[in-house]
Design a protein that fits this description.
Strand order of the largest sheet: 3-2-1-4-5
Strand content: 15-25%
Radius of gyration: 25 Å
Structural class: alpha/beta
Number of domains: 3
Number of helices: 12
Distance between the termini: 91 Å
Low-confidence stretches: none
Largest sheet: 5 strands, parallel
Mean pLDDT: 94
CATH architecture of the largest domain: Alpha-Beta Complex
CATH superfamily of the largest domain: Argininosuccinate synthetase, chain A, domain 2
Length: about 400
């Protein structure tokens, strides 16, 4: 008997990917291999294993992997070295997770001898682009099945009908319309759709799952010290943490104080605008702290160059172009800029905000003698500024003379 074609499915165990699993089996006659990535989303992932077994997947064809340390060390931290935000606000929590998931899909496909992978991203969103561009970058010959672009299960009702027909268990809260959809990992949660589709309506408080209401946060602030080495955080209050555990600790502090909420209408890569409600508590604290230590240790030319390229770098990540030569080139520049970015930043966490209150570094470029309002004992000759200003003004003065004649 000829061996069935195999497909590796990015499987969460939820309604959508459970239906996709059965659809791949019954409609396309594939042998399905399930891959579930633990990226710190906070869910009990063994339930995904039980669901896969129930749907007929062989035990050795179920891959449930804890990728949290790799996720933070090799994806989140490199991104934060550039102080990366998309469209001025979004910390790219969903975008940065997709290349790692795609990487493991391709690796598992190689392990099990599958020529095809599949995902549950819809045909309207960015994730289909991110998954597939990453996959093709790593294996140009991989075949990809995107059911939402192929099947006729175009509504929640049709999905549930298919699930009931094929005896797929449905959680009680999935039978009706869910109030919004959620994507989560250790860096953030993203909520969108349905009750959030009208940008004129304020998001209800129950949408926020990772942060306390800032108005109800403690009346007393917390002060923490974050220490950096080569641009990456390594300690909180002098205690060393692994990358994932450090981000977990910052998340806990951010949750308590209601830090990291964002309600954003963004421009999707596929062309439409969408409204998302994001929570990035630890990442928001980290971004402020990293900018502060760079302010002390990074020279102005390098800092401004990084600020110039950051929107381009953010767009590459948002658009799914992590595994590309241009991202590699920018990453090399960014990483080089972090050679002397080390020291400690003290933060005040209070009522939805993360404030920098002090910073120190053995690699500091700050000179009190240069900036003091007191006697600098000849360290800086203020008279030198006159020639500097006149040289800078030379072009402007000639323009003014010409304009005066006109």
């Amino acid at each position: 008997m000829a061996q069935k074609k195999r497909v590796v499915l990015a499987f969460s165990g939820g309604l959508d990917t459970s239906v996709i699993l059965k659809w791949l089996q019954t409609e396309l006659d594939y042998e399905v291999v399930c891959f579930t990535a633990d990226l710190g989303q906070g869910e009990e992932l063994e339930a995904a294993r039980d669901k896969a077994l129930l749907l007929g997947i062989k035990p050795d064809h179920i891959f449930i992997e804890d990728l949290t340390e790799e996720f933070v060390q090799d994806y989140v931290f490199p991104m934060f070295r550039c102080n990366t935000v998309y469209e001025g606000q979004y910390l790219l929590g969903t975008s940065i997770a997709r290349p790692l998931i795609s990487k493991r899909l391709i690796e598992i496909a190689d392990i099990v001898g599958a020529e095809t992978i599949s995902h549950g991203a819809t045909g309207k969103g960015n994730d289909q682009v991110r998954f597939e561009l990453a996959a093709y970058s790593l294996n140009p010959d991989i075949k990809i099945i995107a059911p939402w672009r192929l099947w006729n299960l175009s509504s929640r009702t049709k999905l549930i009908d298919f699930a009931e027909k094929h005896q797929i268990p449905i959680a009680a809260n999935k039978v009706g319309e869910p109030p919004f959809s959620v994507d989560a990992n250790l860096l953030h949660t993203s909520s969108e759709g349905l009750i959030l589709e009208n940008p004129e309506d304020e998001a209800p408080e129950y949408v926020y799952q990772r942060t306390n209401d800032p108005e109800k946060a403690p009346d007393k602030p917390d002060y923490i010290r974050i220490s950096f080495k080569n641009g990456d955080p390594i300690k909180i209050d002098d205690k060393e943490y692994s990358p994932a555990n450090l981000l977990k600790r910052l998340n806990d502090l951010g949750r308590l104080h209601g830090i990291g909420r964002l309600d954003l209408v963004e421009n999707r890569f596929v062309g439409m605008k969408s409204r998302g409600v994001y929570e990035t508590p630890g990442g928001t604290i980290l971004l402020q702290a990293h900018r502060a230590i760079e302010g002390l240790t990074l020279d102005g030319g390098s800092a401004h160059l990084k600020d110039d390229i950051m929107p381009r770098y953010a767009e590459l990540i948002y658009n799914g172009l992590w595994f590309t030569p241009e991202r590699d080139l920018l990453q090399t520049l960014i990483d080089k800029s972090q050679d002397n970015v080390e020291g400690t930043v003290k933060m005040k966490l209070y009522k939805g905000s993360a404030h920098v209150v002090s910073r120190s570094s053995s690699k500091s470029l700050y000179s009190k003698q240069l900036v003091t309002f007191e006697d600098d004992k000849g360290y800086y000759n203020q008279g030198d500024a006159e020639g500097f200003i006149k040289l800078k003004a030379l072009r402007l003065r000639e323009l003014a003379r010409r304009n005066k004649k006109d």
